[in-house]
Amino acid sequence: MALDMDQLRRIFYEECRENLEVLERELLALDPDAEVDLDIINTIFRAAHSIKGGGATFNLNEISQFTHVMETLLDEAREGKRRLDATTIDLLLKGGDCINSMLVAYETGTDFDHALRDALTDQLNELLNGGVISGDAVPTANADKLQPEQGSSAGDWIIHFKPHKEMFFSGNDPVRILREMFDLGAECVIECVQDTLPTLSEIEPEMCYLSWKITVDGVVTRDQLEEIFEWVEDECDLEITQAEGEQVEEVVLEDAPTKAEPAQENSVPSPVSDKPKAPTKATASKADAVSSIRVEIDKVDNLINLVGELVITQSMLTELGQNFSESKLERLQAGLDQLLQNTKELQESVLNIRMLPISFAFNRFPRLIRDLSSQLGKSVELIIEGEQTELDKTVLERITDPLVHLVRNAVDHGLESPEVRLEKGKSETGRVNLYAYHQGGSIVIEVRDDGAGLNKERVWKKAIEKGLLHSETSIDDLSDHQVYNLIFAPGFSTAEVVSDVSGRGVGMDVVKRNIEDLGGHIEVDSKADEGSVFRISLPLTLAILDGQLVKLADQVFVVPLISIIESIQIESDRVKVATGGVELYRLRDENIPILRLKEEFCLGESGALDKQLLCLVEAGGNRIGLLLDEMLGQQQVVIKSLESNYTRVNGISGATILGDGSVSLILDVQGLMSGFLSRVSDANNHIAA
Fold first, then answer.
1. Which of 181, 439, 491, 683 could form a disulfide with 505 if both were Cys (CB 3.0 to 4.6 A apart)?
2. Beta-bridge partner residues of 556
3. Which pTM value belongs to this model?
4. Who's near 530: CB < 8 A, 6+ residues apart?
5. Is the CB of residue 279 less than 8 Å from the CB of residue 109?
6. CA dist list (Å): 559 to 564, 595, 597, 605, 672
7. How many beta carbons lie within 10 A of that of residue 425, not counting itself?
8. What is the tens place of the pLDDT at every residue in 463-520?
């Protein structure tokens, strides 16, 4: 069976990104001022080594060669010859970014920044040539593990390397290992052993039949040799010994060859093609669109079991239908009930497969905080809680950018400089908290900081200056919540200095719009000199919705159940008309604006209020009452995108197909509320003018 190299290469891309995440996470965990943690350094080294090895296997030479320089530096740290200070860690982090850019270039068939790669390579080499310190100068609890093996240079190393026949199946290639022997910079002599090579008629192209005897100069340490073979130690028979003056028949490979010379005409070639094919633009765009997900085997097993149950139930119903009689009616009903249960469990199981911990989004923020604190000259501590909280993969991917913007604002605008914090009696180090938790059928994400908080008066003045409020609007006429929500207006910014971090007034409106597009909402709380809290509420999934079916004229709509507070029969004496013709319903000392949905969707007039139902809904911290003709049952509905199948409609978030085959539109509560309140505000401002 031929190997699908494109599929193997895609697997490598995924694994490479995982290793880059490990490399970044562990580098950020290193404390340059603390005692050396050998376990962390080994983890970083293994990640870099895997990237280099995989790159060489697939002939991604730029990645392999660049990572080799990083690996050499990390190897010196493993051996105690170098301490990873803050400067070195920063350089290695930039190296990880560079590898990622090269990976994207290979994946999409585009080019990467060669100048940046070369500059980083020069910096790494400069550090290697001039920054080496002795192992004795490195304080570590595991100093004995860092010392090179005594007497390792006493004589030449003799290595007997016999790969198992199935080595190629794992993606490993003996040729790559032989090449790495030359990277040690020592004299190396290799003899190919062909004793187990079968006849031409018996040979299997996917098997490895050759073995090698390698002689390496004794200046190389045993650890260096074992490191080369550590990734194939379970796939080969390996013997490393040291001897004085053993005579070896010389078969010298010239400077780091790109291809091992075959022992004879029948030798086995590497299964990996010489060069990765650069994808065409069409292929590249397709690759960009492909998204994958890793699933726990328990979830897959559960899914398979449920499918089995479904097949059994289907077989039973088929048998009942073949010779159906009235006597089988009870069994038919039981079978249909079982089918309903199986379908519901299958639906939950499939949705569960799409659920991922939010740590996939949170993991990028330690690096972001490190870079921002260095750039802005602030000391910042990041605290992450609830990172194992799960939500749908689609929601997870689309919420990351808004979170990045909120965290950047928290560090830039929210936290004061160390000097100002000390003057206020605060700790010099500011705190940013990321907290995720489930609440009902939603996930709530909070971004907190202990900075200066929002200046209510300053926000109010800026809003009047920008024309967001009428010039005669007093600050006392607005609640704190109303003032703070003004920061989500397009172009709003209170920053005195425009920087490359923030201050242009572009972003918070986009953050709010993106969150609302996901069916969620954002609200902000703040206290002077205590900090701010941005609270995002999102649905767990965009595929299934718990909905309340409602009727307007002869049309059935779906109201998301999560938005509904309560439903009441209207008492006409509680309805008042405010300035601008806005109807308000007095409920428990609160005036609720009434939105007549029939008029909103041009379905006719609502008629007398005392015959109507009022459905109180909440979104973005605001409440309104939706005027309805009738409320039907509740049910879960499968969401279909209206925008991708038709066009975007204001006040409608999607559509679904009901049990009778009819199409029902799903109300966008946040969109309806925003449009309604905006019209009310414009009307009031017009009257005031």
1. 491
2. 551
3. 0.61
4. 450, 453
5. yes
6. 8, 14, 12, 20, 11
7. 7
8. 888 777 777 777 777 777 778 888 887 767 655 544 545 543 446 888 888 887 787 8
Q: CB–CB of 35/114 below 8 Å?
A: no
Distance CA 148, CA 603 (A): 83
Tokens coding 435 = 């907290």
Contact between 410 and 376 (Cβ < 8 Å): no
Among residues 462, 481, 489, the alpha carbon closest in space to that of 473 is found at 462
In which order are the strands placed within the sheet that holds 521-527? Answer: 380-385, 430-439, 442-449, 531-539, 521-527
- The whole-angstrom separation of Cα 63 and Cα 46 is 15
Place of tokens 């718990």: 546
DSSP secondary structure string for all residues of 632-689: EEEEEEE-B-HHHHT---TTEEEEEE-TTS-EEEEE-HHHHHHHHHHHHHHHHHHHH-
Q: Over the range 578-609, which residues count as b (16 or more CB within 10 Å of their CB) and which as e?
A: eeeebbbbebeeeebbbbbbbebbebeebeeb
- Rounded CA gap, 327 and 333, in Å? 12
**pLDDT value of position 653:** 82
Say if residues 565 and 618 touch (Cβ distance below 8 Å). Answer: yes
- The residue whose two tokens read 């560090």 is 411
- Residue recorded with tokens 């996930």: 443
Whole-number Å distance between alpha carbons of 551 and 609: 16
The encoded tokens of residue 224 equal: 């260096």
Residue type, 155: G
Q: How far apart are the first and last CA of the chain?
A: 79
